[in-house]
Amino acid sequence: xxxxxxxxxxxxxxxxxxxxxxxxxxxxxxxxxxxxxxxxxxxxxxxxxxxxxxxxxxxxxxxxxxxxxxxxxxxxxxxxxxxxxxxxxxxxxxxxxxxxxxxxxxxxxxxxxxxxxxxxxxxxxxxxxxxx
Length: 132
Hints:
The protein is of the alpha+beta class. It is 41% helix and 20% strand. Strand 2 (96-104) and strand 3 (110-118) form a beta hairpin. The longest helix is centred in the middle third of the chain and has 26 residues, at 38-63.
């Protein structure tokens, strides 16, 4: 059963963000000995989702009709090949960066992904080992 097709988009996004918030709280507990209540996890998820939705609305307002074309399609790799996408984001408030990647097959199936946080900004020489 594909849950995505059983509930509306807004509820699906909320479920995904709740799962992320639970995972995030688990990592905080395991790796940093930070304990969060269930209520704190839900509040974090709601605030995060509201921030994402507000940001998306700002982008739609600023970009106008062209905003719809930003994520309108994904081009599959040729058969028997894998497409790997990488992304990174920097935060001035936390002075850190997030590196993420996703591998997909020609039919769009997710073959694997990663996401990692660095608490300090990477210098160019630190990134050299990441090159193929």
